[in-house]
Design goal:
This protein has 455 residues and is of the alpha/beta class. It has helices spanning 3-13, 18-32, 60-67, 100-115, 130-137, 185-191, 194-200, 220-229, 272-276, 293-302, 361-368, 394-397, 400-406, and strands at 44-46, 70-76, 93-95, 98-99, 121-125, 150-152, 156-157, 159-160, 177-178, 205-210, 233-239, 249-253, 259-262, 283-292, 312-317, 327-332, 346-349, 372-374, 380-382, 389-392, 412-421, 425-427, 432-439, 446-448, 453-454. The chain folds into 2 domains: 3-354, Spore Coat Polysaccharide Biosynthesis Protein SpsA, Chain A (Alpha-Beta Complex); 361-454, UDP N-Acetylglucosamine Acyltransferase, domain 1, CATH 2.160.10. It contains 13 helices and 25 strands. A hairpin with a 5-residue loop joins β12 and β13.
Length: 455
Amino acid sequence: MSGLVKAQQRMAAADVPQRAIDVFSSFYAQLQDGRSGMIREVDVDPLEGIEHAGSLHLTDEECREAAAVTAVIKLNGGLGTSMGLDRAKTLLPVRSDLNFLDVIVGQVLHLRETLDVPLPLLFMNSFRTRDDTLSALSRYDLAVGGLPIDFLQNREPKLRADDLSPVDWPADPSLEWCPPGHGDLYTALEVSGILDALIDAGFRYATVSNADNLGAAPDPSMMGWFAASGAPYAAEVCRRTPADVKGGHIVVRRSDGRLVLRETAQTAAEDADAAADPERHRFFHTNNLWFDLAVVKETLAARGGILGLPLIRNDKTVDPTDPTSTKVVQIESAMGAAVEVFDGATAIEVDRSRFLPVKTTNDLLLLRSDVYGVGADFRLRSQVDAVPLVDLDRRFFTTIADFDARLPEVPSMVDAHSLTVKGDWRFGRDVAVRGDVTLEDTGAAESVPAATRLG
């Protein structure tokens, strides 16, 4: 029995929808053919000449009319395993009384009230994040009409790297499965019935972003812009800096002029320098995107449920915490790659304020600090002209448990340019950082006393 058939049978036995199995099978065929989704530098041109969100001029009524037919979708499948978490990252506090979910809900409820629009909020959860997320959201009245507040991301088997058959891991069978990447968004919307439900309820557009990016607040002016653009699909992009060498960026395919998302995993080694050059490729993808719900439905129907997103091959071990465990391949795709699927897809440049993801405890320190304020509209706004750089010693600050133990209260950072911590340092309360501060590794555990002014 072939590896594909075994994988299909395992998915069917786990009640994975047939559409999702079909999409997986399409990617599996690409994997067997040796394709890895590489996008060569010689085949693309840089993205240029796009509109900036700061130049938009729309009336309040235009914005409200667009908001009235827009739904907000947040991707909430991540566990935050890189920070030592085993539940949804969005349950982490960002303020003493607010976690990510609280801020997201606050942003949506504020717009519902001020604009008098329904603005459905839906979370795409994974099988690992759903229960905790719904429990945390139960205290809010979020439902709009008969719409649910979440839908499930699909799952697929991890494949043995040697023969591409589904891996067996009796020590923890849950590790035999993985999410298919956030490119599964479109399949999950369809098979869950959410896509049809939104359209039937009169909604036309969706704005989508990662739930750990609190900068991507639902924005009426952006809603008005997308509605007026007539585009079926749009990507929000930011100017790259030398720090933005990783992550996806938008390029223009020379063969047909279409916009294409190129992820780091799709960049050949010989193209790495050109791809990372912020002077050549000036825009990175924020993973904030917009699409016309009806066009997505029509395109899925025309393509038999398979959009044809590029394959991303992700080489891992079955137990991500054990590098000696069985080597596996995870088949993934990126939701932003759909930009190349739709005729007339476009991009818009946005300020960095719409890109505040939390991937490490460096990011979390800044988000919890006084660098950002949370307004009555629950939007995060920087209180400084230039956000400080933070570099915490990974040996002692990578996991949330270690981070919280050493930083029970994050220091004031509004007067800081940078904070570099080398070694095992613990911070007292009411510490302030000014200018550029480096704490050196002394080889022993050290403390910053309470009320210290560093720098």
